[in-house]
């Protein structure tokens, strides 16, 4: 009785291990593994590591909606890169926005303008 239970247990264990290995196979490595350790954030060499520069670009976003009976809402937002440090960790972008309601029973609203800036630090 005990030997049949042990055989059944071993059979179930083999089925479980085989099914999990088939369900989650490990991918083959694509290239050599870099065994050189990277500096940690609290190590003294962390500040000397160059951060790859990110190419930032002009952004323009717009939206709106409404109906001829109620009028239309219109809004535009923009973000323009102004400055980036040599190591790419510090950057500053200028922002601007415009919004206005057009038409409808109350007519056009006064335009709403806005401007600002965004400072970014990459860890």
TrEMBL record:
Record's GO cellular component terms: extracellular space
Domain of life where this protein originates: Eukaryota
Signal peptide: 1-23
Heme in keyword set: no
Keyword terms: Signal
BP GO annotations: defense response to Gram-positive bacterium; humoral immune response; response to wounding
Identification of the protein by name: Attacin C-terminal domain-containing protein
């Amino acid at each position: 009785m005990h030997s049949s239970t042990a055989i059944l247990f071993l059979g179930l264990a083999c089925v479980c291990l085989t099914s999990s290995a088939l369900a989650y196979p490990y991918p083959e490595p694509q290239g050599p593994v870099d065994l050189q350790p990277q500096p940690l954030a609290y190590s003294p060499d962390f500040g000397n590591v160059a951060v790859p520069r990110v190419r930032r670009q002009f952004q323009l976003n717009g939206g709106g909606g409404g109906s001829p009976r109620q009028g239309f809402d219109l809004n535009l937002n923009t973000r323009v890169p102004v400055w980036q440090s040599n190591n790419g960790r510090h950057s500053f972008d200028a922002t601007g926005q415009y919004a206005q309601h057009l038409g409808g029973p109350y007519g056009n609203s006064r335009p709403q303008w806005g401007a600002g800036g965004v400072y970014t630090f990459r860890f």
